[in-house]
Write a structure and sequence with these properties.
Layout: E1 2-6, H1 10-22, E2 27-31
Parallel strand pairs: 1-2
Length: 41
């Protein structure tokens, strides 16, 4: 299954990681308009 997430800041990345933990077979694409996506320590 393919999933597209719009927005790479905290909410988008949290959603992406939650989805991949729930179903490792997902094909996830995160779209972000800025040069960098969100990351945490």
């Amino acid at each position: 299954m393919k999933v597209v997430i719009i927005g790479g800041v905290a909410g988008g990345m949290s959603t992406a990681f939650k989805a991949i933990r729930e179903n490792p077979n997902l094909d996830i694409t995160v779209l972000e308009q800025e040069d960098y996506i969100s990351f945490g320590a």
